[in-house]
Amino acid sequence: MSILSHARFTASEGQTESFERIIAELAARAIAEPGTLMYRFFRGTPGTYAVIEQYADAEAAQAHQAANADLLAQIDGCTKEVSITLHGPVGPEIREWAQQAPNVTLFEEPI
């Protein structure tokens, strides 16, 4: 079963250009990764963004996180608010991270 992620970001004051540069590079990398089924960023009101991600499985989601740790750290440095919702069987590593991370909601059990 695939993993879906919906994340929302608010760029810190004066960081919009940096954030958009980083997410452009991140999106280019992500769509080339094996196991990444969808990776799309959207712009909302000024300074707000969302990304919808879909991975074939937990291993593909973990591989994305590992391969892009550098850019994900940069995103943390230029945002003031992030919320993430994960759907699907994320596996033990992502589950542990989600349970410790602020503003992460996890829905693992399909109905």
Overall description:
It is a single chain. Strand 2 and strand 3 form a beta hairpin. The protein has 4 helices and 5 strands, in the order E-H-E-E-H-H-E-H-E. The protein has a domain of 76 residues: Alpha-Beta Plaits. It starts with a strand and ends with a strand. The protein has a 5-stranded mixed beta sheet with strand order 2-3-1-4-5. The chain is globular. With 111 residues, it is of the alpha+beta class.
Keywords:
111 residues, alpha+beta, Alpha-Beta Plaits, 5-stranded mixed sheet, 4 helices, 34% strand, globular
The number of distinct β-strands equals 5
The first-level CATH class name of the domain at 3-78: Alpha Beta
What number is the mean pLDDT? 95
In the CATH hierarchy, the architecture of the domain at 3-78 is 2-Layer Sandwich
Q: Which runs of at least 5 residues are low in confidence (pLDDT < 50)?
A: none
Shape: globular
The CATH topology of the domain at 3-78 comes to Alpha-Beta Plaits
Helix and strand content put the structural class at alpha+beta
> Beta-strand level of the residues, as a percent range?
25-35%
Oligomer: single chain
Order of helices and strands: EHEEHHEHE
**Biggest sheet architecture:** 5 strands, mixed
Tell me briefly what this model is.
The protein is an alpha+beta fold and 111 residues long.
How are the SSEs placed, and which strands pair?
Elements: E1 3-11, H1 16-31, E2 36-43, E3 48-55, H2 58-67, H3 69-77, E4 79-87, H4 91-100, E5 104-107
Parallel strand pairs: 4-5
Antiparallel strand pairs: 1-3, 1-4, 2-3
Helix pairs in contact: 1-3
